[in-house]
Amino acid sequence: MPVELRKRKAVAAPSAPAAKRKASKSAKPVAAQDAPKDAPKDAPKELLSHDKNLSAKGASAVAKIAVGSIIDFEGFGGEVETHEGAKTTLKALVKDSKSGVVLFTYPKASTPGCTKQACLFRDAYKSLTSSGFSIYGLSTDSPTANTNFRTKQKLPYSLLCDPSATLIKAIGFKKSPKGTVRGVFAVNKEGKILAVEAGSPGGTVEVIEKLIPEGDAPFDPEAEKEGDNGDDNAGKAEKDEAIADVAADVADTAA
User: Fold this and answer.
1) Which residue of 26, 65, 82, 122 pairs with 172 in a disulfide if CB–CB is 3.0 to 4.6 A?
2) Residue 112, preceding bond cis, omega within 30 degrees?
């Protein structure tokens, strides 16, 4: 019987690889970091990348405090209290002055460095006010503490109490997180800043003395005598004063 030959099934050809899908032209790139919605278009990079909660209004609210700049007295520094308990503002103080206001800041009433600073302003009070400036001490102390301080040292000027440090912060002398930098600030009736400088007890007085025209300062015969023979000891005296100021500041901070 003849053998029947069977035909082999043809092997199917391998299928072609699937074509790669092209990226959609309409796909949007993923942003590295979204900018805050409330930031202005021209906001600095620091605002865009570091603080999403800081509004544009808040970013521009801080005025630059520098000599020669003009401040708006309306609402500047908030409300403070005199040692007698009367509420006032920088705007009101300037309005009541003849030429402007001088504020010297001190860390704490009745401490060594602050006592020295207050007494130096007391001793120079006549000359410093000869051009119409009104002098005020400014600290975070209570009215009671400042009243006792003023009475004991026989200070001729008022002391301002700023427990929340709103005015102290506004003029640039608030420490972080708390505390007060010793310094001095002067502004005229038009709102122009004449002086803003941190310094030692004696240094803060010297800053204001430089604003007083020479003709307005009263003649001091004792100072004239000292000028004839004092140059030899000037260097030593300045060095001793600097050392004393540093020690006083340390004591004030520790108090």
Assistant:
1) 65
2) no
Q: Is 71:193 a contact under the CB 8 Å cutoff?
A: yes
The yes-or-no answer on residue 119 being catalytic is no
CA 111 to chain centre: 23
Among 80, 114, 120, 161, which one carries the catalytic annotation?
114
